[in-house]
Design brief:
Largest sheet: 2 strands, antiparallel
Order of helices and strands: HHHHEEHHHHHH
Membrane topology: Multi-pass membrane protein
Shape: globular
Number of helices: 10
CATH architecture of the largest domain: Orthogonal Bundle
Distance between the termini: 35 Å
Structural class: mainly alpha
CATH topology of the largest domain: MetI-like fold
Family: Belongs to the binding-protein-dependent transport system permease family.
Strand order of the largest sheet: 1-2
CATH class of the largest domain: Mainly Alpha
Oligomer: single chain
Radius of gyration: 22 Å
Keywords: Membrane, Transmembrane, Transmembrane helix, Transport
CATH superfamily of the largest domain: MetI-like
GO cellular component, one term: plasma membrane
Protein name: Arginine transport system permease protein ArtQ
Helix content: over 70%
Length: 223
């Protein structure tokens, strides 16, 4: 989300920042995520200073979460960075669409009140852009969860990787991948409910929902 806002902000600027944002969006939106993960893991990670790579590869007891999953490991860090950057460009596009729906009169009124460029962006544009684009952004975040299965290609022991490991041990492919599918389904359903609940709610939609609930309770059906 933060990366998406940064890219969107850069695109609103003029000159090099705008062209940089456009280049990032076009590059990561038009190349496969699997290729990007392989690039970050096998090419970009190898370019890091030797001391950094040794520190990342070392054991860090304080960065291990149950059941023994290290948070500071090449696979986890690369997967997190690759997935975050890939999703950020799509979130930036959704935010740009949300910004386009903000009436220009609000921007003019804010400037007439003495608000600067950053204040207009922070207090006027971004809150409304997020509200306008929240549902598409929820879809992108759910895609992020599903695309995390590609992280198994660089050795990250996530759900797909574990399902393959179980299948290779006992040849119970149906049970292993059925369990993995159910886990993805459960995570997706929980994520969608939480994101919708956390998202901005428009007063009009809340009033409509309340009216529908009252009408349904009295047996009047949907509005």
């Amino acid at each position: 989300m933060v990366l998406g806002i940064v890219i969107t902000t850069l695109r609103l600027e003029r000159g090099p920042p705008r062209w940089l944002a456009i280049a990032i969006i076009e590059l990561f939106r038009n190349t496969p995520l699997l290729v990007q993960l392989l690039f970050w893991y096998f090419a970009a990670f190898a370019l890091l200073p030797r001391g950094w790579k040794m520190w990342i590869a070392a054991d860090h007891a304080w960065a291990v979460v149950p059941p023994g999953v290290p948070l500071i490991a090449p696979e986890f860090l690369v997967a997190t960075w690759g997935l975050a950057l890939f999703t950020a460009v799509f979130l930036a596009e959704e935010l740009r669409t949300g910004l386009a729906a903000v009436p220009a009169g609000q921007i003019e009124a804010a400037r007439a009140q003495g608000l600067g460029r950053l204040d207009v962006l922070r207090f006027i544009l971004l809150p409304q852009a997020v509200a306008n684009a929240w549902q598409p952004m929820v879809g992108q975040l759910l895609n992020l969860m599903k695309l995390s299965s590609l992280a198994s290609s660089i050795g990250l022991a996530e759900i797909t990787y574990q399902a393959r490991t179980i299948e290779s041990y006992n040849a119970h492919s149906v049970e292993a991948f059925a369990a993995g599918t159910l886990l993805y389904l459960a995570i997706g359903l929980i994520m969608s409910r939480i994101l919708v609940w956390l998202g901005p709610h428009r007063p009009g939609s809340l009033r409509r929902s309340s009216a529908e609930a009252r009408l349904a309770a009295t047996g009047g059906g949907a509005l």
